[in-house]
Amino acid sequence: MWFKSLKLICIFFTVGFINCGDVQPERLTVGEIKCSHCSMNIVDMRFHTQLITYKGKRYHFDAIECLDQFQNDKNFKAQKIWVTNYLDTNEFITKEKAIIIHSDKIRSPMGAGLAAFKTHEDSIPFQK
């Protein structure tokens, strides 16, 4: 009897520890998901942005400006926010560590010209 209880406890803790890992951004296929703010298909992955709440709800955006407007409208705090590196669409950067610039040389989906870079040096060619 005690062996059966021990087995159930081990399974419970194993499942619990697996789900306690660090939250990571999701990779998307082009056109697979719509922006949580403006409902446009996310097709330019250079601007893809993700937000996850403390309850685990994940939101995807087609541009940084959509994320900012969504946060202002909903007025809630996020557990994590990731932005895509403009120069490498396979790399996500936390919004706190990213260098976000506004430039007329960048044509973002919503037209604000915002893009995220990993380093300040990477952003220099896009600045005035």
Task: Give an overview of the whole structure.
The mean pLDDT is 85. The protein is of the alpha+beta class. The protein has one domain. It is globular, with a radius of gyration of 19 Å. A hairpin with a 2-residue loop joins β3 and β4. It is built from 3 helices and 6 strands; from the N terminus they run αββαββββα. It has helices at 2-18, 64-74, 120-123, and strands at residues 49-52, 58-61, 80-85, 88-94, 99-102, 114-117. InterPro entries: N2O_reductase_NosL. This is Accessory protein NosL. Pfam families: NosL.
Question: Low-confidence runs (pLDDT<50, min 5 residues)?
Answer: none
Percent helix, as a range, is: 25-40%
Question: Which percent band covers the strand fraction?
Answer: 15-25%
Domain module tally: 1
Looking at this protein, list some descriptive labels.
four-stranded antiparallel β-sheet, alpha+beta, 128 residues
Layout of strands and helices, then pairs:
Blueprint lengths: L1 H17 L30 E4 L5 E4 L2 H11 L5 E6 L2 E7 L4 E4 L11 E4 L2 H4 L5
Antiparallel strand pairs: 1-2, 1-3, 3-4, 5-6
Organism: Leptospira terpstrae serovar Hualin str. LT 11-33 = ATCC 700639
Protein name: Accessory protein NosL
Pfam families: NosL
How would you sum up this structure in a few lines?
Helix content is 25%, strand content 23%. With 128 residues, the protein is an alpha+beta fold.
